[in-house]
C-alpha cells in the first residue's frame, strides 16, 4: 500500500516532525518506507528520515507492507494532519 503526502510544515521534516512520525509508526509490525527524491529510508529510523532533508512543499511517498497497514496509514494520516506536518494527496 502506498500514499503520497505534501509536506506543509514551514520547517519541512526536521527533528520534531521526524520524531512524531517515527514514534507513531514504531509499534506497528509492517515494514514502512519513506521515499523522497528517489531515496528511500525506513520510517522507523529517525536518522534515516532526517537524512532526506525534506523541505516544505515537497511530496513524499510512504509505502508499507504487512498485516496492519490499514491502521498504520490511518495513524500516519492522523499525525500528518493533526500536527500540521502534511496533507494526504
Automatic annotation (TrEMBL):
GO terms for biological process: phosphoenolpyruvate-dependent sugar phosphotransferase system. It comes from the Bacteria. SUPFAM superfamilies: HPr-like (SSF55594). PROSITE patterns: PTS_HPR_DOM, PTS_HPR_HIS, PTS_HPR_SER. Signal peptide: none annotated. Keywords: Cytoplasm, Phosphotransferase system, Sugar transport, Transport. InterPro entries: HPr, HPr-like, HPr-like_sf, PTS_HPr_His_P_site, PTS_HPr_Ser_P_site. Its main location: cytoplasm. GO terms for cellular component: cytoplasm. It holds the Pfam family PTS-HPr. It is found in: Cytoplasm. Residues 1-88 form the HPr domain. Belongs to the HPr family. General (non sugar-specific) component of the phosphoenolpyruvate-dependent sugar phosphotransferase system (sugar PTS). This major carbohydrate active-transport system catalyzes the phosphorylation of incoming sugar substrates concomitantly with their translocation across the cell membrane. The phosphoryl group from phosphoenolpyruvate (PEP) is transferred to the phosphoryl carrier protein HPr by enzyme I. Phospho-HPr then transfers it to the PTS EIIA domain. This is Phosphocarrier protein HPr. It comes from Lysinibacillus sphaericus CBAM5.
